[in-house]
Design goal:
two-stranded antiparallel sheet; 16 helices; about 350 residues; single chain; about 40% helix; two-stranded antiparallel ribbon; mainly alpha
């Protein structure tokens, strides 16, 4: 047995020697037998920690908090009071409601303990770690509440604002098409306060036919070359006089941003007299609505409010425009052509309306 094993090992050693003898010479290191050159060192990437700290440093967070404290958004009276806990209003009137809406597309029910807006209302989790990712909960184009066939695209980050700053109701001729009259059943009737995105985009108000042409929706200059964030969140300045706005997280429009685009050195926002013209038209239209009995001044609220009743459709549509432009508060700056058309055509339509006999 041992002799057979010895023979086997001798055979294996013999074959191994034969195969080793048949192995060819070693190959060269590269072209012409020389090794390739090392590549140059790459540029170091930006520090991930530095990118995060651009926003999350103690100094920056304190600065943003101070700016936010000057904003009307931080006020509970605009969020929690009355509307913050209501299911139909909470999506924009409380922190909890907006977070629910952003995550699920609806608010499941009333909010038990609603609170005012805070940082985490608008900001959630980052999708990337890039410096341009502000972790906004919503930034896609917005399907309009007043008409689901309408989508408003205010460009990227500005779409976050449009989710709330839009009219909740369609104008009278859209909600009651073909009818000759319209009934106002509430002293709160109107487009809803703060429908700025409708003004900027140029859609959703009552486009009464008249001498002044309406621009195409989405064609305003401020939408094309500016943005909500570009004007309202420009570099913060601490100048707080009426002539100088602050920008940043105060969301007060920045006059410096206006002057940069208009290449001007204006001391107010009345560029080209637009705001003066719109203010005068608003006052004229308000006077017509008072004459016709659609609105009255309520001293307790220090505001003009609609009077419940049934009115000719044209009058109700004109009121809708007045209420929307008045609540916009830009006095035409958001979209001068659209806003002037709304007001002038409404004024012209009411001038021939007879004063009601009481």
């Amino acid at each position: 047995m041992k002799r057979k094993q010895l023979k086997t090992w001798l055979l294996l050693l013999t074959f191994g020697a034969i195969f080793a003898a048949c192995e060819g010479p070693a190959g060269t290191d590269g072209l012409n037998g020389t090794a390739g050159n090392d590549g140059s060192d790459g540029v170091d990437g930006a520090s991930g920690n530095a990118t995060c700290m651009a926003c999350h440093s103690t100094e920056t967070k304190a600065m943003v908090a101070a700016q936010f404290a000057t904003s009307i958004h931080v006020s509970g009276i605009n969020a929690v009071d009355y509307a913050g806990g209501r299911q139909s209003c909470a999506r924009c009137h409380s922190h909890q409601g907006f977070v629910q809406y952003a995550a699920y597309g609806e608010v499941a029910g009333g909010i038990t303990n609603p609170t005012a807006w805070e940082c985490a209302t608008c900001h959630g989790l980052h999708e990337t770690m890039e410096a341009s990712d502000y972790a906004l909960r919503l930034k896609d184009p917005v399907v309009a509440i007043f008409d689901e066939t309408v989508t408003m695209d205010l460009n990227g980050n500005s779409n976050l604002c449009a989710n709330c700053h839009q009219t909740r109701r369609p104008e009278p001729n859209v909600s009651n098409p073909g009818e000759e009259t319209f009934t106002i059943t509430s002293s709160h009737y109107g487009p809803h306060s703060g429908a700025q995105s409708n003004m900027v985009y140029g859609v959703g108000l009552a486009e009464i036919a008249g001498a002044v042409e309406y621009p195409e929706a989405g064609s305003s200059t401020h939408l094309e070359v500016a943005s909500c964030t570009g004007c309202h969140m420009a570099e913060f300045t601490s100048e707080t006089s009426d002539a100088k706005a602050m920008g940043g997280h105060s969301w007060n429009p920045s006059l410096n941003a206006c002057n940069t685009c208009h290449e001007d050195d204006a001391e107010d926002f009345n560029h080209g007299g637009v705001r003066s013209d719109v203010a005068a038209k608003l006052e004229t239209l308000r006077g017509e609505l008072v004459r016709l009995g659609l609105i009255e001044y309520i001293a307790e609220d220090e505001a003009y409010e609609p009077v419940k009743g049934t009115y000719p459709m044209i009058q109700a549509r004109a009121f809708f425009n007045w209420a929307g432009v008045d609540a916009d508060r830009s006095f035409g700056a958001h979209n001068p052509k659209y806003i002037k058309a709304l007001l002038q055509n409404s004024i012209d339509a009411l001038e021939d309306e007879p004063t009601p006999v009481i």
